[in-house]
Every structure is written in structure tokens, then in C-alpha cells.
Amino acid sequence: MNKRFAIVSVGAALALGLSACGGGGAGSTAPGESATSAAPADVTVGVAMPTQTSQRWIDDGNNVKSGLEALGYNVDLQYANDDIPTQASQISTMINNGDKVLIVASIDGTALSSQLADAAAAGIKIISYDRLIRGTENVDFYVSFDNYKVGVQQGQSLLTGLGILNADGSENPAATGPFNVELFAGSLDDNNATFFYNGAMDTLKPYIDSGVIVVPSGQTDISQIATQQWKTDVAQKRMETLLTSADSGVTLNGVLAPADIISRGIITALANDGYGQGGKAFPIVTGQDADIDNVKLINDGQQYSTIFKDTRLLAEEAIKVTGDYLSGNEPEANNTTDYDNGNKVVPSYLLESTVVTKDNIKTVLIDSGYYTQEQVDKGQK
Ligand code: GAL
């Protein structure tokens, strides 16, 4: 269905809901006063995003902002440049400004407890966006993807790229290896990193145990392979170190990378080491997010796969949940078991993700209007 129509229909339902329950009253609401009595034009929604270093967060921010604005709300969209104190202070400002709902993609999921206690005291609803906020009662809802499954898809696509699995998912008994594979994980302060790692490792471990896959560095524990703040240069440095130590003289066949922002650093290090030249093939490198630069890398044969998480749908879900709260309704969850943040199991709505390789860039990303062919060719939006 046409996305604009979907958003407009939510908007119409919302407008009805607001006027039915609140008399459509105009005028600003004071901080802490119920937002359900306010007209959309008098409501501001705070949107706290972590960084602009990855295309996905820019798209997330823009999609959430434009969707809410189409419903008549004001939006305060902030990016925190991956800096934890900056994000905490942006959220404090949103609370002081009287924002009615906060949509937060946290940098460190445990670092916002005191701000969120203030928000809850002011009657503000808190939606955890993509990344689970941990260590606090004060998170009302979580919108994300099935993060464990994303990890499984990364592991499976690595196995498929190596030829250990056939395209239909069955095992290829002729692929006995050993295949040399190094492993990378995300930032340990992001709850998602553990979900991705667990999904991927549950998929890869049988092959590591049987010797079909060998990890030359021996580094398989998440603490050894994590990438602080998901930084491209941190991943590049670790790959460079591996290439001059454990992997020197070794032909690498694969690298498990948990996100495109990390894959880019890994691919730069591999290219500088001579991979992709003189008959030395690039290893199978995975990813996540279908960042436009990486879709080009996939098209050019340097990266094997990414996991596409449609940020348009995630934004739509966050907008729907916001609308529910502002009209006094409880949003609908489709998972009430998996996301325990240490203080409570947060009701969640999880979306599905898709593996993208060179073979389905067109059907998944271009035909759906996510990118144009020209953007893919250029590697730029
Ligand atoms: C994760 C997110 C991924 C990726 C990564 C790095 O939390 O789920 O999609 O973007 O952060 O930004």
C-alpha cells in the first residue's frame, strides 16, 4: 500500500480520536499536562537519534519527522554525534520544553535513567527506537526488528557466501573447508549488539566446532570482537591489526560484520592489504542496514551481503505508537517476552528483515522505491 496513504489514514484516525476524547481543544499544554487534550499543532514530539555517521539514522530521523509533521505535530529532531552526555542533555532539553512523547534511539542504553525518570514524572511517554533502553522502569514501548533473527541471517548469509549452505538453505557436504573467518561484533553498550552476536554465533558455532570454519585469531568472545560505538575506524584498526598478526600469511575467506558501518572499515583494511587485486578475492563480508555506500560495495563485489531493515516501516510504527499514546490508547505489541531491560519486559513491536546480496538489490531495494538505480550506481543518496 502507498505509504503516504497509510500515514494519512493514521492521521485521520488520530484527529478523530483527539477531538472525540479531548474536545479538540486548542492552546498549549503545560509540561506534565495530559497531551490527549491537545491539538496536534500544540504537541511537540522529541526525537533523539544517535549519530549521522550512518545513512540509516539519517533516514530514520527524516522519516519519523516528516511522518509526524504530516499529522500536524511539531518535531524536535536531534542527533548526538555518538556522544552520550550530548544525548542526555538533548533529552533534558526536550523534557524542559514540554515535549509530550520522546522517541529515543540511545547511544548507551543504560545511560539515560535519570533523564527518563524526569520524563516519566512529567507524564511523558517514552518509546525506545530500534535499540532497547535498559536499566529503567521508564520506557513504555519498544519498536525494532527481530534482532536475534538479524544475527541468524548474518550467520546464514556468511555460510551461503562461503558455499557451506546452498541457496535453499540446505548443507553442501562438499564444502568441508577449512574456511578462515574473522568475527566482529557491535558496541557493547548497545543491547542489539548481543542479540546480533547470539544469532550469528548460534548459526556459526557448529561449523567452528567441527573445524569447517577456523577463526585464525581465536577471538570469538563478544568482548574480544566488539567495536566501541560501532565506529568505522575502530573496526578498520582491528582488521589491520589482525592482517599483520594472526591473519598475516593466511587467506581470509570470510568476515562476519554486524553492520555496514563496520563492514566499510573492514573492507578498507582488506583492500589496503591487497584483497580484491591480482587474483586475491575479497572474503565474504556481511553487514546490516543496506547503507547506500555498502549497496554499491555489494554491487561492485567487495561486500557480499547486508541485512535490509526498512526504516520507512520502523518510522511508521513509531508514529503509530506515538499516535496511540497521544490519543490515550495502549499501542499493540507483537512481542511481550524477549526484551527484558533489567527492570521490566518492555512491550515490543518487531519488524522483519531481509538478506540482500547482489542478486536481489533490484527486487528488494529498487523495486520497493527505497533507492533508485542511479543512487545504487553512485553509492550516494
Ligand atoms: C544498531 C542498529 C543497526 C546499526 C547499528 C550501528 O543498534 O540496530 O541497524 O545501525 O546500530 O548504527
Helix content: 40-55%
Distance between the termini: 24 Å
Side by side, the strands of the main sheet go: 2-1-3-4-5-11
Mean pLDDT: 91
Count of structural domains: 2
Q: Structural class, please?
A: alpha/beta
Number of helices: 13
Radius of gyration: 22 Å
Which ions and ligands are bound to the chains? beta-D-galactopyranose
Which sheet architecture does the biggest sheet show?
A: 6 strands, parallel
Number of strands: 12
Q: What are its keywords?
A:
single chain; 381 residues; alpha/beta; Rossmann fold; 2 domains; 6-stranded parallel sheet; 4-stranded parallel sheet; 13 helices; 42% helix; 13% strand; disordered N terminus; binds beta-D-galactopyranose
How does the SSE layout of this entry go?
Elements: H1 3-22, E1 44-49, H2 55-70, E2 74-79, H3 84-96, E3 101-104, H4 113-121, E4 125-129, E5 141-145, H5 147-162, E6 179-183, H6 191-209, E7 213-214, H7 222-225, H8 232-244, E8 254-256, H9 260-272, E9 284-285, H10 292-299, E10 305-308, H11 311-326, E11 348-351, E12 354-357, H12 361-366, H13 373-378
Parallel strand pairs: 1-2, 1-3, 3-4, 4-5, 5-11, 6-7, 6-8, 8-9
Antiparallel strand pairs: 10-12
Helix pairs in contact: 1-11, 2-11, 3-4, 5-6, 8-9
Bound molecules: beta-D-galactopyranose.
Overview of the molecule:
It is a single chain. The protein has 381 residues and is an alpha/beta fold. Helices cover 42% and strands 13% of the residues. It has 13 helices and 12 strands. The protein has helices at residues 3-22, 55-70, 84-96, 113-121, 147-162, 191-209, 222-225, 232-244, 260-272, 292-299, 311-326, 361-366, 373-378, and strands at residues 44-49, 74-79, 101-104, 125-129, 141-145, 179-183, 213-214, 254-256, 284-285, 305-308, 348-351, 354-357. The strands form 3 sheets. The chain has a 6-stranded parallel sheet, with helices on both faces. Strands 7-6-8-9 form a 4-stranded parallel sheet. Residues 1-35 have low confidence and may be disordered. The chain binds beta-D-galactopyranose (GAL). Beta-D-galactopyranose binds at residues 54, 56, 130-131, 186, 190, 192, 230, 259, 261, 288-289, 309. Beta-D-galactopyranose binds next to loops.
